[in-house]
Amino acid sequence: MHTDPECIFCKIVAGQIPCFKLYEDATVLSFMDINPVNDGHCLVITKAHAENFYDAGPDDLQAVIRAAQRVARAVDRALAPAGLNIIQANGPAAGQSVFHYHLHVFPRRAGDNASFNWQQIPGDMQRIEANHGKILAALAQA
User: Which of 15, 110, 124, 131 is 20 to 30 Å from 34 at the Cα level?
Assistant: First the structure.
């Protein structure tokens, strides 16, 4: 398993830094976020170091989503939030601050004022269609 000795999440996986552990198996670890946006905010991470979604292996990604669903159901039963987001960021511009692949399990409350930094504004259909074509072409090369 690949690790990064400078990565805070790798240090948590290795037991060098304590955490409020929620779930663990051979591939993933889930624990409480110590900088929570709302009560119950927790993380699900790969044990193997991968900087982001692009670098994580397919088996690790599957394990993370299975664990996230299990943890999210527990958060829902335990705290009964009004809603819940599963959030993942790639790169600083997307808000990634720890460069180790992880999902946020993010309980929501009405009026919590948490935002995702964009407004729903109708897009330019020609531009959307052009980007659609570019992405389809890239998928065909994958």
Answer: 110
